[in-house]
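Anyone opening a protein record will find just a pair of labelled lines. A complete record is shown below as an example:
=====
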Amino acid sequence: MLTQFKQLLTHYTGLALSETDHDKAYKFLQSRLAELKTPDLAGYVQQLTANSLRADQEWQLVVQALTVPESFFLRDKGQMHILQQHILPELIQRNRHQRQLRIWSAGCSTGEEPYSLAMLVQKLLPDAHEWDVLILGSDINDKVLAKARAGLYSRWSLRDVGPEVLAYFQPAQQGLLALDPDLREKVTFRRVNLLQTPFPDLEINKIDLILCRNVFIYFDQAAIAAVVEKFVQTLNPEGFLLTGHGELYQQPLYGLQTRLYLESVVYQRSAQSSSRSPAVLPDLPRPAAVPTLTAPDIAKARIAALDQAYQAGDYAQVLAIAQTLLSQQNDFDAHYWSAKAFASLGQYPAAEARLHAALALNKRSAACYYLLAHIREAQGDSQQATELLNKAIIADEQFIPAYLELAALYEYDEPLKCQQMRGQALNLLQKLPPKQYLEEFAAHAQDLILHLQ
């Protein structure tokens, strides 16, 4: 009977339930059957297929149980660079006469992506108040949309951002950060089932830019094709579609052409109304012979490959590289980067297991304690997050991110401790070269000093 449920799930949502999610699905179904006092799965499937408000509410429970609402601000720096330097400036210039800009974040989860887009638009379009600007965030999950509208985020959602982004936030209760109300008003949220909701419609039409990233990795191939066809009809001629890396591989993208940037591929609707296949990318030249590398060179190349895949949001590639390394030896870097990938996917138990394996190899890794603290914070356990951040400082007294994270946790309830942590972080930053780049904050030391002062 699980097969029938999987087929229904794919038909209604596009989601293809993987084998690794079977246990989660079984537990959810057992819980619902017991609560509804339904004797078997056939009866539950019948409830889901009914044309009723109750069926809609039940579907919400299904998607909330079986989807992973994981996102963060300015996710995938490479793609954000393309948007800021190429796509958005081109759209602004193209639309300057009619002063209209329409952007859709499809599958927006808890809202970090559409709010990130709002920040970019505000930066690139100072006279946005004189334009008709739509920034729409949609998701199938009502629960994540409610969180998006609230605009309250943990520091985990703000990892890898600099002072320019942090300036949009103020401390709120329970260690959370509240997004600037003016920016919140620039984004509209709406429930959309990409497969079942009819669009284009009165609101979702003539879109200049659609982002649908890290959504299709969970979709059935036929569902991807159906949604992409709807996207093409919804885009303006020469409008853009940006997906996660490799998500449209081997898909028949009729009506779309490709633009190839160093950081990513971007799809663009043809100027003509007639459908056409995407342009074929040229063959890349064969690489030159690779010189013999020393052990330190190999280690650097390995970390660079893991970091590049992680920054691109290609978590499957991170896990693949790490697994290859672990098949050869019990490797700290492989465990640590696997943990980062699992955490970004919202698979916190797997992330914790990898972090504990990494700590078994290096008990003084402040970065591992720091990531564990973020996971606890994302799960709402501020007390244990605080304990883990203190462990990070014990492991490395010069680990600046832990001081700043503790300051953020203390800011609302314990302002004196907050000041102490910020002061210690400032002292450490002032000892660094001004131009030293800190990956954790995507900023130079001098910029962080200005922010703290």
